[in-house]
Model the fold of this input.
Amino acid sequence: MFEAADLKKFFEYISNRKVLIIGDVMIDTYLWGKVDRVSPEAPVPIVSDIIEENRLGGAANVALNIKSMGAVPILCSVIGGDERGAVFLDLLGEQNLSDVGITVDDYRITTQKTRVISGFKHLLRIDEEIENPLSRSIQNKFIEIVLNLMETGRIDALIFQDYDKGVVTPSIISRVTTLANRLNIPVMVDPKFRNFQKYKEVTVFKPNLKEFLKGVKLDAKKSDIDKLVTAGEAFRLQQKIGVLLVTLANNGILVFEAGKHYHIPANNRRVTDVSGAGDTVISLAALSYASGMNAEQMGALSNLAGGQVCEKSGVVPVNREQLRVECEQLLPENAGTGTTSAGAGAASE
Done:
């Protein structure tokens, strides 16, 4: 699937390429602690010796993945004018990420997901968020910023990272996609449920299985490949999508393009945490497509990267060097060496 020249071109090409990311951002907060006993008040664990950690999440994790691969992310989103918004901006600064595309809305709160973890076991998650679409005035201000960055930023690829938190609206989708097509900027989409049918004439569309089944109103399992193939190609044609990627957890990934499809299986991995793996998949899809890889190679590379981050606890970006090594292990000349690498699979559910 990969040739040495393909990988060399990819890793050389992506350095300093600019990727515009539009979507819902959040703070991923982790409360790491230990559990020694059960509460006498209710059958729940007592967590003590807590260490708190804040990380960039949502579309901001896509930015971290793009940065980790050596490209330049330009993050566009809306945060609240609250204390958590200030924390988010501090986290951006710590990662040397620009806030040029960030809009502050004093009437919204900044999304925060708090996970309680003990011994790498996920005990609880608390979500604090507003899911309402942006107000008209904030939406107009945000669109103006995004379109200006597209016109002036020499963008190599654009990603919609949609978490249904209200930042991505039908108007934003329409106006951004229209301009991107005029400027020949490839548009990548990681959809959720609300806007699933709103994305048309995009370059790459990457739902996970749950999102795809609900989006096309299909009753099927990840093992029903024939049913998924029929529905996937029909949806791709209906929406005028260039390449459709459907992630199937431990069943790998399905790739659709003009009359062709590929089922790329996932190899075994020691899965620790699937959080954020979909962010990694869409990030690598954008970079691999922009570098000139074909659809099958794009699916395989994205699948591999998504699986890599599943081996780590919490939301973390892909590791460029580790990914390069795993890709090289898949080269024909290295086949049969006994080295095992794995697909992305579980990542995207």
